[in-house]
Design brief:
Elements lengths: L1 H19 L9 H27 L3 H25 L3 H22 L5 H29 L2 H28 L6 H20 L6 H22 L5 H31 L1
Length: about 260
């Protein structure tokens, strides 16, 4: 009985420490915060993409893993960022994101993916991304550094890649509203523009240049998948699913490189 009580009190103490700001220590600096803040932008899109893919039977195993693992990551990083918030305004934004996230997570996990709920997932995902983007911008402004700006811009590339894929899969499933192709086109144009800006950044190391070059190659594959030239619709959707994950991985590496560059 004594050991059971001891375990209970240790668990309670850990919960109190987490709630009181232990998570703050998990963010090492402002650029780490910008990186993690940006990850909440792209993850909201990626979760919607995974939801649509499960509903259509596309890339199901990976999509289920994304839905499980990314929701847990979102919970954890949201706590970290809310506790880290360096200004009351940023804290307020994360409180708003936390409230919106609860409803979004319920939509994603509350029942098996279906088209009617899918329409709501798309709408709410846009709201979540908008709040997360606001918070990331606030942190980048607070950092007031070129490196922080590069972490933010490269991190936004992750969000754009997943937004494009999200809308593409939503259109394929028939749950996207009118004007969705225009959303894809505008996001594609922004991605290309920002990729060119990143490739021209004076702060780039040879390693960053190499990774950005790889990102440019992956963009070509992703863009080709989006055109859907294969006669088999499911093959087209699977190509979008896989290429969007590849470009996400490369751009995530770029963000990490800029973050480490900023820490030197």
């Amino acid at each position: 009985m004594k050991s059971t009580l001891g375990g209970f009190f240790r668990a309670a103490l850990l919960a109190c420490l987490l709630g009181s700001g232990l998570a703050h220590a998990q963010i090492s600096n402002i650029n780490d915060a910008i990186n993690k803040a940006g990850s909440l932008r792209y993850t909201a899109n990626r979760l919607a993409k995974a939801y649509f893919q499960i509903g259509m039977g596309v890339d199901v195993d990976r999509s289920k893993r994304v839905l499980d693992n990314a929701t847990a990551m979102y919970d954890r990083r949201l706590v970290e960022l809310k506790n880290y918030s360096p200004t009351p305004e940023i804290k307020e934004t994360y409180v708003a994101l936390e409230k919106a996230w609860i409803g979004y997570k319920d939509l994603l996990l509350g029942s098996a993916p279906n088209p009617e709920a899918g329409k709501k997932v798309l709408l709410v995902s846009e709201e979540i991304v908008a709040i997360a983007n606001k918070a990331t911008g606030q942190l980048a402004t607070y950092s007031n550094s070129t490196q922080g700006k590069l972490v933010n811009i490269s991190g936004r590339q992750r969000m754009l890649s997943q937004r494009i894929a999200k809308y593409s899969q939503a259109m394929a499933w028939g749950v996207a509203p009118a004007g969705s192709q225009a959303e894809i086109d505008s996001s594609k144009a922004e991605f290309v523009k920002m990729l060119n800006e990143l490739m021209a950044a004076p702060a780039n190391t040879p390693q960053i240049k190499e990774e950005l070059s790889l990102g440019n190659q992956q963009w070509i594959f992703f863009d080709a998948a989006l055109t859907g030239k294969n006669s088999d619709k499911k093959v087209n959707m699977t190509n979008v699913a896989t290429t969007s994950e590849r470009i996400l991985e490369v751009m995530d590496n770029v963000v990490g490189m800029y973050e480490r560059l900023a820490a030197k």
